[in-house]
Specification:
mainly alpha; 69% helix
Length: 469
């Protein structure tokens, strides 16, 4: 059940209507949301709801036992159980085939013929997200950042709350659970803003990502041979636009849907293509993941407290693991490694090059965006051969005839420039503030235009890109 489907629209209307029935108590509302969330997840495959229950029970129990344990040794043992179970399940389903393929390749490289039976593993949707939900809760209890929550119902709802269940934002218990204390009903203002955000998110996904950017990106990355330089850049820019509008669109829909029920979810994107440098980029792109990796991996490794050399190692390890989190492929690891290299290079450059003023900002934004696009090639490519072929074409090392006609280049170029312009203008602004200052006739016209465009440009029935992670 995807946000960009009619079945979700019907599901959402029913869930919202029942949630606001006056006969329901606050506990009844939460039970209804929990059941609706299970139904939402089970719509993909009912079997995998067992994994959601497993994560919920393991981390709920581990946190309770950790706080009751008298010794640090017992607390650490319970934390290890939580980490092993969560990452073990994630590792089996997400990386089982990847590990198997690499073991076979290593054995073949040393002359050992090994042909194991193939793994028939289906990746449960959203497993990377809800696993990080529950694991962060146990880690926070162990580290003393929060206390175990008293209500199991609240905790189960936190793990499975359907707007954020399958593609984030990655929630922390401290962000969601306190909202479960007092009764929440849908107010007119919340409903209006929530529906407006969902409309904006669907516009980004359906009209920009799916209809304009995706076909061109797919055509370019389907080519197995050489490309024209302009085609290489056009396909890469198209994917840069597709993934930004696709994932930001999902997060915007999720935040809007939650708001319709009176819940607040954290921002996950803040116009990342306006970033000046890569530290700024990761404070704007997939914020819930980057802060998760920072708090539970980078800082525990030592962060920047142990000198420059150790800082660079910690940055690289964090980004390599962040790349692997996105997918079981070495191309994702290289994508993460490139961003680790970018972050290290930025720290070195900032020591010797001034980074202030409008000219520095403009140059910084352009350089950051170009390097991000180069990294996107590895994120999108199905193999290293394809990635390097696209890159060689982009930089004129390889040549071929044009893949597209003039209008395609124009549409991608103009639309991407519009996206970049919006990011540039919104760099230091909040969407809520801009909307508040905009006259209501303009707001109404923009909203109506997006709705009409969504209806007219339904595009292909594409799942959100981050569903595969």
């Amino acid at each position: 059940m995807q946000f960009n489907s009619y079945i979700f629209a019907a599901f959402f209307i029913v869930v919202l209507a029942v949630y606001n029935l006056p006969v329901l108590t606050w506990r009844g509302q939460k039970v209804w949301l929990l059941l609706a969330s299970y139904a939402f997840y089970a719509a993909w495959d009912p079997v995998f709801i067992v994994l959601v229950w497993l994560s919920t029970l393991i981390d709920w129990g581990a946190a309770k036992l950790i706080i009751r344990s008298a010794t640090q040794h017992k607390k650490r043992a319970l934390l290890i159980v939580s980490v092993v179970v969560n990452l073990g399940v994630l590792g089996y389903f997400k990386y089982g085939n990847f590990i198997r393929a690499n073991v076979v390749a290593i054995l073949h490289a040393v002359g050992v013929e090994y042909h194991p039976a193939p793994f028939d593993i289906v990746l449960p949707i959203g497993i990377s997200f809800y696993t990080f939900h529950t694991l962060s809760y146990t880690l926070d209890v162990y580290l003393g950042r929060t206390k175990p929550w008293d209500s199991f119902l609240d905790f189960a709802l936190y793990v499975t709350f359907f707007p954020a269940l399958v593609a984030g934002p990655i929630l922390r218990g401290s962000q969601f659970l306190p909202q479960c204390v007092e009764r929440r009903r849908t107010t007119g203002r919340q409903l209006a803003w929530g529906l407006a955000l969902m409309t904006l998110g669907l516009f980004e996904k359906t009209c920009l990502a799916d209809t304009i950017f995706a076909p061109t990106a797919d055509d370019v990355f389907a080519v197995t041979g050489h490309l024209a330089t302009l085609d290489g850049w056009t396909g890469t820019l198209a994917f840069a636009g597709q993934i930004a509008c696709d994932f930001a669109g999902y997060s915007t829909c999720a935040i809007g849907a939650a708001l319709c029920f009176g819940f607040s979810l954290p921002d996950n994107f803040r116009f990342p293509y306006s970033a000046v440098g890569f530290s700024d980029f990761w404070e704007r792109w997939h914020i819930s993941l980057s802060t998760w990796l920072r708090d539970y991996l980078y800082i525990p490794l030592g962060g920047n407290r142990l000198g420059p050399a150790r800082t660079y190692i910690n940055l690289m390890l964090t980004m390599l693991i962040g790349g692997l989190w996105h997918g079981a492929s070495w191309t994702f690891v290289v994508w993460g490694g490139l961003h680790g290299t970018y972050l290290i290079g930025e720290r070195v450059i900032r020591r010797v090059v001034p980074w202030t003023g409008p000219i520095a900002r403009t140059v910084g934004v352009i350089v950051t965006f170009v390097l991000v696009c180069i990294a996107w090639v590895f994120f999108r490519a199905s193999s290293f051969d394809q990635a390097f072929s696209v890159l060689r074409s982009m930089f004129g090392i390889e040549h071929a005839g044009a893949l597209f006609r003039g209008p395609t280049y124009g549409v991608i170029g103009v639309t991407m420039l519009a996206v970049l312009a919006v990011h540039w203008v919104m760099h230091a602004r909040k969407l809520e503030d801009v909307v508040e200052r905009t006259p209501w006739p303009v707001r109404s016209f923009a909203l109506a235009a997006m709705l009409v465009t969504i209806i007219l440009m339904q595009g292909q029935d594409r799942a959100f890109i981050y569903f595969q992670f």
